[in-house]
Design a protein that fits this description.
Helix content is 43%, strand content 24%. Strand 2 and strand 3 form a beta hairpin. The longest helix has 23 residues.
Length: 182
């Protein structure tokens, strides 16, 4: 199992000829919009005539949130870009499997056999050690799936190869893969 990628970051970083970490302008625009909305909302509350704990608490929360998005505008919004397709590979979903109803082997085999319906139908539950991460490159029409597991509170790593779904399979399995979520 040690040959499997530790996580998606390690997987993408291990292939610099194919993937490059770049500024994702689409994500940056979303952050700018949230910054503006939250900043305006906090300004309106700040200059309003209402005083008391609740308006001040909301104003502080909105201002803090606006600052977080401001930080993301400047230093965040970097994702891996597939150099072959020009598309950004972004996280689509995470599913955490209920270990009382499904085994690691069942999910691993379903992933290897591309039985995404079985993965969708598997019982989910929050705070579980077995999880599947789904990333998507919409431009290149590719899904990247990685089965990961917590071995302890500090050890979380991949237990499968990254499964790439592309070409005709992308369109064939797209609806099922979009349903993979908690």
């Amino acid at each position: 199992m040690s040959n499997f990628p530790e996580n998606f970051e390690a997987y993408f970083a291990s292939q610099p000829e194919r993937f490059e970490k770049k500024l994702n302008n689409r994500a940056r625009i979303k952050n700018i919009l949230w910054f503006i909305v939250l900043g305006l909302a906090s300004f309106v509350l700040l200059v309003s005539e209402k005083h008391g704990f609740i308006p001040w608490a909301i104003t502080i929360l909105l201002t803090f949130s606006a600052l977080v998005f401001g930080y993301l505008i400047i230093w965040g919004s970097k994702d891996y870009m597939d150099k072959q397709t020009g598309g950004f590979v972004v996280e689509k979903s995470i599913k955490k499997f209920d270990s009382h109803y499904v085994t690691e082997i069942e999910i691993y085999e379903a992933l290897q056999n591309r039985d995404f319906r079985a993965i969708v139908d598997a019982t989910a539950k929050d705070n579980q050690p077995l999880q599947i991460y789904v990333y998507e490159d919409k431009v290149g029409k590719k899904f990247y799936l990685l089965l990961m597991k917590y071995f302890s509170t500090s050890e979380f790593k991949g237990i499968s190869d990254v499964t790439i779904v592309e070409g005709a399979d992308y369109d064939r399995y797209k609806k099922d893969i979009y349903k993979i979520t908690l």
